[in-house]
């Protein structure tokens, strides 16, 4: 059963469970991220050094997102064929099991294996949750608002994850006998998020319909498939670019805060929390009732330009307050762009919501994997300081070029004209 729905076509209970599903994925990722360099340092012991910690941090973060890239399209295809509910259940239950295992592993090799498996199962959650919205929404406004609610749930999870993980790991290090004072113990927050994942997977079985139906909006006749053939790949390329910049930013933020600015884990977690809070605010504004969904296409190029400038300035911030300003600019631009791409890809997906949302997640994940790996491998190069941030800024500038002419091509009037031409 899925509960009563309102005029949007999306049952309220179903929407809440979808939001909780994406929240669970994000909080699980956010719990780990700020403590990852400290965990690696502890596991490497005396054999570790700053360069090794940087490489391992970037590779572990990139491995998780690489798994998202590899498996999101497959999960999306399976959900189109067999329904959304079983895929969501498997993803959430599997993610809970891997995170519970992560709570007790003590070798770096096992951490690599867990990050890959967590990414594999997480790949089944976000794109399929978004596809459910695409299936059920009865209007474009409903699609935009409900997709934003799911996106905001994800940001809220990442907002709470870093601070929750840091406070719990540092606090429990004082009374758990197996906790290490340098990095604390991730056992309590990871076990908690694993339990949440299992509970949400049960809620999915009870509230998400086992049947899949084609989206009642966003159809433009036979021209839809032709439109996807050239328009959606550009949106996917932009998703890759933005996620690559954020991947560099996230890893570089953790490493620079620890190794160059000498910040505490609490201050690093605070920076991640600020990033998520800014994203939440700008998304709530851009997709509020005061902004029509079709207007968002005009924000793509300006937001990419701001992102390029902010990524260029982040490594030039020399203290904690100026870092917060630069972080706010990166977060605001990225927070605007990600849901805009999701909305427009969903609006062009027709009945193939699972496949297209899977591809969008894959493109974003590949970008994040590339950015995370680059952020770790290029961090601190003596012959080219700030190499990873310069690369990310250059990618964002290339995105501005790719986005030229996109507002006209995304025009709803153009799509309606295509559909009328097909009927004629």
Shape: globular
**Strands, total number:** 0
The CATH architecture can be given as Up-down Bundle
State the separation between the terminal residues, measured CA to CA.
Answer: 41 Å
Order of SSEs:
HHHHHHHHHHHHHHHH
CATH C-level = Mainly Alpha
Could you report the average pLDDT, rounded to the nearest whole number?
A: 79
Uncertain segments: 178-184, 218-228, 416-424
What is the makeup of the main sheet?
none
How many independent structural domains? 1
CATH topology: Growth Hormone, Chain: A
Structural class: mainly alpha
Which short descriptors sum up this protein?
mainly alpha, Growth Hormone, Chain: A, 16 helices, globular
Tell me what the structure shows.
The chain is mostly helical and about 425 residues long. The protein has a single domain (about 10-424), classed as Growth Hormone, Chain: A (Up-down Bundle). It is built from 16 helices and no strands. It has helices at about 10-30, 35-45, 50-80, 85-100, 110-120, 125-135, 140-170, 185-205, 225-260, 265-285, 300-315, 320-345, 355-375, 385-400, 405-410, 410-424. Mean pLDDT is about 80; it is low at about 180-185, about 220-230 and about 415-424.
Topology:
Layout: H1 12-32, H2 36-44, H3 50-82, H4 84-102, H5 108-122, H6 126-136, H7 140-172, H8 187-207, H9 223-259, H10 265-286, H11 300-313, H12 320-347, H13 353-377, H14 387-402, H15 406-409, H16 412-423
Helix pairs in contact: 1-4, 1-6, 1-7, 1-8, 2-3, 3-4, 3-5, 3-9, 3-13, 4-5, 4-8, 6-7, 6-13, 7-8, 7-10, 7-12, 9-10, 9-12, 9-13, 9-14, 10-12, 11-12, 11-14, 12-13
């Amino acid at each position: 059963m899925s509960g009563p729905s309102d005029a949007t076509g999306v049952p309220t209970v179903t929407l809440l469970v979808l939001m909780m599903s994406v929240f669970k994925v994000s909080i699980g990722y956010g719990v780990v991220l700020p403590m990852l360099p400290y965990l690696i340092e502890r596991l490497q012991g005396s054999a570790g050094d700053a360069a090794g910690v940087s490489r391992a941090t970037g590779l572990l973060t990139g491995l998780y997102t690489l798994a998202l890239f590899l498996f999101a399209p497959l999960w999306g295809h399976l959900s189109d064929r067999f329904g959304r509910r079983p895929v969501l259940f498997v993803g959430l239950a599997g993610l809970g099991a891997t995170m519970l295992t992560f709570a007790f592993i003590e070798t770096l090799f096992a951490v690599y294996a867990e990050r890959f498996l967590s990414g594999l199962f997480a790949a089944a959650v976000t794109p399929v949750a978004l596809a459910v919205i695409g299936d059920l929404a009865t209007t474009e406004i409903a699609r935009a608002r409900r997709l934003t609610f799911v996106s905001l749930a994800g940001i809220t999870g990442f907002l709470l994850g870093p601070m929750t993980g840091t406070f719990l790991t540092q606090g429990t290090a004082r009374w758990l006998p197996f906790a290490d004072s340098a990095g604390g113990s991730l056992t309590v927050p990871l076990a908690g998020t694993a339990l949440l994942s299992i509970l949400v997977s049960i809620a999915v079985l009870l509230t998400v319909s086992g049947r899949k139906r084609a989206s009642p909006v966003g159809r433009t006749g036979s021209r839809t498939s032709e439109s996807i053939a050239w328009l959606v790949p550009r949106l996917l390329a932009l998703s890759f670019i933005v996620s690559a910049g954020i991947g560099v930013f996230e890893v570089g933020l953790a490493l620079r805060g620890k190794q160059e600015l000498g910040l505490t884990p609490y201050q690093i977690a605070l920076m991640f929390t600020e990033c998520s809070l800014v994203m939440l605010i700008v998304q709530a504004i851009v997709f509020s009732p005061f902004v029509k969904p079709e207007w968002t296409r005009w924000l793509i190029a300006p937001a990419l330009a701001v992102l390029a400038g902010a990524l260029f300035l982040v490594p030039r911030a020399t203290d904690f307050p100026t870092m917060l300003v630069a972080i706010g600019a990166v977060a605001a631009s990225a927070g605007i762009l990600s849901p805009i791409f999701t909305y427009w890809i969903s609006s062009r997906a027709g009945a193939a919501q699972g496949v297209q949302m899977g591809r969008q997640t894959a493109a974003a994940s590949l970008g994040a994997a590339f950015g995370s790996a680059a952020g770790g491998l290029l961090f601190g190069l003596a012959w080219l300081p700030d190499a990873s941030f310069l690369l990310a800024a250059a990618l964002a500038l290339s995105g501005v070029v790719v986005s030229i002419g996109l507002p006209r091509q995304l025009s709803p009037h153009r799509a309606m004209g295509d559909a009328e031409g097909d009927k004629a």
